[in-house]
Every structure is written in C-alpha cells, then in structure tokens.
Design brief:
The protein contains 4 helices and 4 strands. With about 120 residues, the protein is α+β, with helices and mostly antiparallel strands. The protein has one domain: GTP cyclohydrolase I, C-terminal domain/NADPH-dependent 7-cyano-7-deazaguanine reductase, N-terminal domain (GTP Cyclohydrolase I, domain 2, 2-Layer Sandwich).
C-alpha cells in the first residue's frame, strides 16, 4: 500500500466538552496518511487514478470548521469517514491535534490518532 500524507492542515473549530470551547473555538491541526495503490496513476500519469489531495484537504478543513462535537474521537472519525468516501483510499490514519486544550498544566499538544480501513 502506498501512502499520501498531508501534515498540519489547520482550521478553527468549536469542538470540546466545555461551553467556552464551543463558544470561542480554537485551532485544530490534522495530519493524514492515506493508503492507496498509486501504480495505475503512475503508469498513466493520470490524476483520475489517484486521490486529489487538495480536494481531501478542503473537505477535512470543512469537517473541522463544521458542526461542533464534544470529543476528539468523534471529530477524528468524521475525518476518517470523509477520506474513505474517496474510492481510491483504502485506509487512513488521522491524527487530530488540539494544542490549545483546556489543561491546567504546561503541555505542548494533545493528539488523538485513529486508523480506519475499508475492510
């Protein structure tokens, strides 16, 4: 399985358990690793035989900027579902970063990683 990776997709979302998170929103970053067979595209030099990562990036940002959810788990699943709607994507790894999470101690980042596949 070949890999197409997108790192650091950035969007403002209103996700979280606390009211202030949902009211004010915060920055979320998303990393994607898409698993697919790129041989047909490489053989024919044809975009139609691979994934258009620009389109996927726009769709993922729309999910983050869209309907608020309470849990990172729910957000990550919605992102994975969006990626898997593309016929050529067989599997996806999604990492959602919440660097401004409401934690009372110093920290660099909070992440959730999920892996999903068609099987």
């Amino acid at each position: 399985m070949d890999r197409v990776s997108l790192r650091g997709l950035t969007a403002h979302g209103r996700h979280g358990v606390f009211e202030e998170e949902r009211r004010e929103g915060q920055t979320f970053l998303v990393d994607l690793e898409l698993g697919l067979d790129t041989r047909p595209a490489a053989r024919d030099d044809d975009l139609e035989q691979t994934v258009h990562y620009g389109v996927i990036a726009e769709e993922v940002v729309a999910v983050v900027e869209g309907e608020p959810v309470r849990l990172l788990e729910t957000l990550a699943q919605r992102i994975a579902d969006t990626c898997l709607r593309h016929e050529r994507v067989q599997e996806v790894e999604v990492v959602v970063h919440k660097p401004d999470a409401p934690i009372t101690v110093l920290f660099q980042d909070v992440t959730l990683t999920i892996k999903r596949s068609r099987v």
